[in-house]
Automatic annotation (TrEMBL), chain A:
The organism of origin for this protein: Thermocatellispora tengchongensis
Family listed: Belongs to the binding-protein-dependent transport system permease family. HisMQ subfamily.
GO cellular component, as recorded: ATP-binding cassette (ABC) transporter complex
Residue stretches making up the ABC transmembrane type-1 domain: 15-211
PANTHER family membership: AMINO-ACID ABC TRANSPORTER PERMEASE PROTEIN YHDX-RELATED (PTHR30614:SF37), MEMBRANE COMPONENT OF AMINO ACID ABC TRANSPORTER (PTHR30614)
InterPro entries membership: AA_ABC_transptr_permease_3TM (IPR010065), ArtM/GltK/GlnP/TcyL/YhdX-like (IPR043429), MetI-like (IPR000515), MetI-like_sf (IPR035906)
Subcellular compartments: Cell membrane
Listed name of the protein: Glutamate transport system permease protein
Transmembrane portions of the chain: 21-41, 53-74, 147-172, 192-214
From TrEMBL, chain B:
Record keywords, A-Z: Amino-acid transport, ATP-binding, Cell membrane, Hydrolase, Membrane, Nucleotide-binding, Transport
Main location: membrane
Keyword Hydrolase: yes
Keyword Nucleotidyltransferase: no
EC main group: translocase
Name of the protein this chain belongs to: ABC-type polar-amino-acid transporter
Enzyme Commission number: 7.4.2.1
Annotated organism of origin: Thermocatellispora tengchongensis
Superkingdom classification of source: Bacteria
Length: 222, 251
């Protein structure tokens, strides 16, 4: 217990990094996921194929591999550098990898949502003269989002926990690294394990409850 | 009316064919709809009535033949097709009101997003239209909170808000409880009296008698017979039409 209290500031700094990664990845993955689903349902075959290929490749790649690829492949080998500051660059590379990965799950959740929207909604939208992108933006996606708020919450929860594999990208600042670093000094500590797990639960549980509540509140009555 | 507006029919179908797989749903359809005309399409189920109606705003594509709107072939896709659809209203059997939008928003969406009208102007006009169809007091509700008849009247207001050159009605009362059919038909009769060009697929023979200028009888993908309502209902020429009428007009 003493070591948990003693190293709490270090661990908390690490945990704050996880939360920053999660926040940035949430925003980016929701945007990219929406773009991907628009591609997957578009009338243009090339866009549909590109969207499907992206989702199937990235979703089926292990996240650790993807993060390692971002850091070692894209950054070290191919010269993709966001910032000269290694810490900032690491943060952005992890955010990129995590967002690219999570966006595929956002896309598939939204696609399931689109399937809950009756076909007549799209027909009515077309019949008043809305273009494809207008009917997607104004009619289809708003209803699809409401239908999948709870599953999107689950995607976000998985993403928050996935921030702990940031080490795979050589980014040594998150709470999982801080934990290992602490164990190197103190030996393995059960209270530290439990403390970190509780910290994640404190963030994730409310998200689950909130998205469940929100999905009931915003449900589209038919 | 524009220069030669009277000479060219608003809609003309020329040798239109359409298949659903092996099923030949439209066979060599030739048909014109004049401005201000109320055309009622009747016939047995599966005869191609709805498909015919839906080809006019290209919700259904056709396999061969040509459909002209104001003398020009229907655009195949893109912005030109969207523009055409904004000029041709459509009322569906299952209403298809936008479920996540209020009644008022359903009616203002097209005018603000397609016609780019200012919101205030669109809302003022929408309230007038909702008043006209008798549901102004429901403007802030969502579609699921309204009865079928009220939803269908909203759908008519939504179509009217675009100032369409014609309105297509695809079995507008078929999904309604019997006590709500008349309130929708009354609105449609009002539109017909005001000179709206209408193509109405329906089983409501009373509406056909009261409001139609011409009745088109379709069966097996073909136009079997067309005539004025009086002539058609009292003096059908073809056996197919006589047989159909004998089945529905016996009571």
């Amino acid at each position: 217990m003493d070591e948990l209290i003693r190293y709490a500031p270090d661990l908390a700094r690490g945990f704050a990094v996880n939360m920053q990664l999660a926040l940035a990845s949430a925003v980016l993955s929701l945007i990219l996921g929406t773009v991907l689903v628009a591609m997957r349902v578009s009338p243009t075959p090339v866009l549909r194929a590109a969207g499907a290929a992206y989702v199937n490749i990235v979703r089926n790649t292990p996240l650790t591999l993807l993060l390692a690829f971002c850091a070692l492949g894209l950054s070290d080998k191919m010269g993709l550098v966001f910032s000269q500051n290694p810490s900032t660059n690491g943060f952005l590379l992890v955010t990129m990898g995590l967002s690219l990965y999570t966006a595929t799950f956002v896309c598939e959740a939204l696609r399931a949502g689109i399937n809950t929207v009756p076909f007549g909604q799209a027909e009515a939208a077309r019949a008043i003269g809305l273009t494809f992108s207008q009917s997607l933006r104004l009619i289809i996606l708003p209803q699809a989002f409401r239908a999948v708020i709870a599953p999107l919450g689950s995607v976000m929860i998985a993403m928050i926990k996935n921030t702990t594999v940031a080490v795979a990208a050589g980014y040594l600042a998150d709470v999982a690294f801080a934990m290992k670093d602490t164990f190197d000094k103190t030996g393995v500590s059960i209270p530290i394990f439990i403390g970190i797990a509780l910290a994640f639960m404190a963030v994730v549980l409310p998200i689950g409850l909130f998205t469940g509540w929100l999905s009931r509140k915003l449900a589209v009555a038919r | 009316m524009t220069e030669n507006g009277d000479a060219i029919p608003l809609v003309r179908l020329e040798a239109v064919n359409k298949h659903f797989g092996d099923l030949h749903v439209l066979r060599d359809i030739d048909l014109t709809v004049d401005r201000g005309e109320v055309l009622v399409v009747i016939g047995p189920s599966g005869g191609g009535k709805s498909t015919l109606c839906r080809t006019i705003n290209r919700l259904e594509t056709i396999d061969s033949g040509t459909i002209y709107f104001e003398g020009r072939p229907l655009p195949a896709e893109g912005a030109a097709l969207a523009r055409l659809r904004s000029e041709v209203g459509m009322v569906f059997q299952s209403f298809n009101l936008f479920a996540h939008k209020t009644i008022l928003e359903n009616v203002t969406l097209g005018p603000t997003k397609v016609l780019r009208k200012p919101r205030q102007e669109a809302e003022k006009r929408a309230m007038e239209l909702l008043e006209r169809v008798g549901i102004a007091s429901q403007a802030q509700k969502y579609p699921a909170q309204l009865s079928g008849g009220q939803q269908q009247r909203t759908a008519i207001a939504r179509a009217l808000a675009m100032n369409p050159k014609m309105i297509l009605f695809d079995e507008p009362t078929s999904a309604l409880d019997p006590e709500m059919v008349q309130e929708v038909l009354d609105v449609m009769i009002g539109l017909a009296r005001d000179g709206m060009t209408m193509v109405v697929v329906t089983h409501e023979m009373g509406f056909a008698r009261r409001a139609a200028h011409r009745v088109v009888f379709m069966a097996d993908g073909q136009i079997v017979e067309q005539n004025t309502p009086d002539e058609f209902f009292t003096n059908a020429r073809t056996d197919r039409a006589k047989d159909f009428l004998s089945k529905i007009l016996t009571h």
